Amino acid sequence: MLDELSHIGRDPATNGYIRDAWSVSDLELREWFRGEAARRGLDLREDRNGNLWAWWGDPSRAPGVATGSHLDSVRQGGAYDGPLGVVSAFAALDVLKNRDFRPGRPLGVACFTDEEGARFGVPCVGSRLLTGVLTPERALALTDDDGDTLADVLTRAGRSPRALGRDDETLGHVAVFVELHVEQGRGLVDLGRPVGVASAIRPHGRWRFDFRGQANHAGTTRLEDRDDPMLPFARMVLAARESAAKHGIVATVGRTRVSPGNANAVPGLVSAWLDARGAREEDVRAAVAELGDLAEGARVSEESWTPVVDFDVTLRDRVAAVAGSEEEPSPVLPTGAGHDAGILASAGVPSAMLFVRNPTGVSHSPAEHAERADCEAGVVALASVLEDLCR
Ligand code: HGY
Ligand code: MN
Ligand code: MN
To answer: DSSP assignment of 38-71, as one string?
Structure first.
């Protein structure tokens, strides 16, 4: 299945993936999902927010066990972040069907829309709308670099923008959610283990900084006459690294937009997005506040915030014992990466995550990789976890 997906949205120059939400590639990936569900005779539903659910059994009769992830990617992302969880979900169902397993409760495969927020800037749009932590009004007004709003894009994709919103009926279908994901870090490779279980998702957020100046000629404007926004922007980037080190967090500026972007002119506006994450919310907030103070005159707006997620301990330990063994449970480790499972957990849906070893730990890069044997170990572990939860 990973091979079947490998050509969709791949940039031949880099082997990186560009799979923006609701792009042609995303629509192709959604068609692939529908085909896989149909091949297995699963009952496919697209919920009001565009998330896909493929059920074995009817969750409206009794809440079921759902497993899955996302298919969209960051720009120039890797092949595993997201798709590994969706592919492993279908593969785990195949393992159970081949064992003539009859689930005691409905078993579903989920594919959340727009997890990365690569196009509209907010991560986990599908799960945040589903759980109500993102309002339809805010979501529909989100705008991409071409000036298209999510409302425009949904309409073009044949969806109704007015349908968006918290979806208690769909939430009610999910008694427990398990997301398998390639590890985005070196925890498992350093432990020498193929599969792990998430203990927590560290708090993290995204802030937009707008530095305004005065556009002017690069050759004829004296230095003392300049109001160049590139300078406070540059100071903020360097200060972000210092502040992160001081507060024991991580801070990244990976996206900027210089307007109008002439090589021979002082820019009028520099926008920069700060991604800051840490073990403790107060450390992240303190670092961002410092940067806001330093960037006086800049407009700073919080684009998304995800509080700490501590996964349900009983479920976590049950999953670790089943994914590993009673004698040697799978290792339990935190992550600095956000996931739909974290959004569901924060909304009160018992959730767990399985990680599959990433030999280099590299992610959000074409270099992201997972060994086939580890991917298969992940499927076997997920199948055992689903079997246990479906009793
Ligand atoms: O950015 C994240 O933490 C996740 O990969 N969406
Ligand atoms: Mn990601
Ligand atoms: Mn992901």
So the answer is: HHTT-EEEE-TTS-EEEEES-TTTS-EEEEEEE-
